[in-house]
Amino acid sequence: MKIVIAPDSYKGSLSSKEVGLIIQKAFQEEMPTADIEVVPMADGGEGTLETILFAVGGEKVDLEVTGPLGNRIMTSYGVLSDQETVVIEIAQVVGLPQIPQNQRNPMLTTTYGVGEQMIHALKRGYRKFIIGLGGSATNDGGLGMLQALGITFLDRDGSAVKPIGASLEKIKEVDFGTIHPEVLKCEIKVASDVKNPLCGKTGASYVFGPQKGATKEQVEKLDQGLAHYASLVENALDQSIQYVAGAGAAGGLGFGLLTIGAKILSGSQVLAEATGLEEKIKKADWVITGEGQSDFQTLYGKVPSFVAKLAKKYDSKTILISGSLGNGFEQLYEEFISCHSIAIGPLSIKESIASASKYLYICACNIARLLKASSN
Predict the structure, then answer these.
(1) What angle do helix axes 48-56 and 16-30 make, rounded to 10 degrees?
(2) Where in the chain is the domain with CATH 3.40.50.10350?
C-alpha cells in the first residue's frame, strides 16, 4: 500500500514537517509493510522554507539583513538541491512575531531586508526565486525591498525617502532605471493565497493593518500613502498593477514584487510544484493531510483542499486529520473520505497545543489500524 502524507502545519503548535513525521511514525508502527512518504506542505507563510528544504533537499545560507524595525538581524534563505533556486520566507525577515506587541506600528516597519536577501543571492549567481509571502509586520508596499534592489524614491527635496510605511505619501519621484541590472533577468515565483488588491477597503491596509498594530487613523493614512505610491510607480512603469489579485499580500509587498516581473501563484501550487507532490500522489492509494483547524473555509483553497483535489485527479482517497473540526466541517466530506479531530475530550486551547503531538499520534494510529484491517 502506497501512502502519501502531505499536511499543513498546526499553527502555534506543530510545523507541517512535525505533523507529517508524527503521522508517518504511527503508520509505520501499525503498517510496517506500507510504502509511506512524507511531503510537508505550506501556503507561502511560516514554515515554507523548512517545508521545501525537507522535501527537496538543499541548504540554508545565513546572513545579516535589516529587520522590520530597521535593526540588524540574522536570518537565512534556502538554496535547493538543484543549486539554482533560492527560497525566501519573508516571515523570517519581516515577520510579525519578531516585533514585541507594544512596538508594532506598520508606519515604521520596512521590507528592506527582503531586498537585501535577494541582492545577496544575486551576487552568488542565483536567478530563480521562490518567495513565500505571509505573516509580515510591514505595510510599505514593498518600498523597502525595491530600494534595496536599487530603485530610487525621492521626496520633494530630492532626498531618498526612508524605507518605511510613513514615507509612502512623501514620495515625489520614482526611477526604476537605477535597479540592480540582474534583477530583471530573474524568474520570481511568489507563493501566496492572499487575493487582496493593494488599496481600498479590501486592500492591504484596511484588511491586515490592524493586526499589525495600526490604529484607525494610521490605516487610512497608509491606504492613502499606498495609493499615492502606486500611482507614481505605475506611471514610471506604464503598467497597471495595484489591482492584480495578491498585490496587497504582506502589506503590499506583493505589489512591489509584481513591479519587477514576479508572478503571484497559489501558495499550495508553488509548494506542490517545488516538492513534486503530484508525481508522488499519482501512485498513492491513500493521501493523508490536515491543518490546525478545519471548517467550511478549508474548501476555499486551503492546503488540505488543494491536496484532496490533486489526489482525486488520480483516484487516490484522502483522509483529513486536523487539530479540531469547526463550523460546517460536514461540507468537507465532498473532498475527504473521513475527517478527524485529534482532540480527546474537553480541553483548553493551551492543553490542546501542549499535547498536540501525543493526540495526533494516537489519532493516526487509530486510522492506520482501520486501513490495515480494511486492506486485509
Answers:
(1) 40
(2) 2-39+281-375
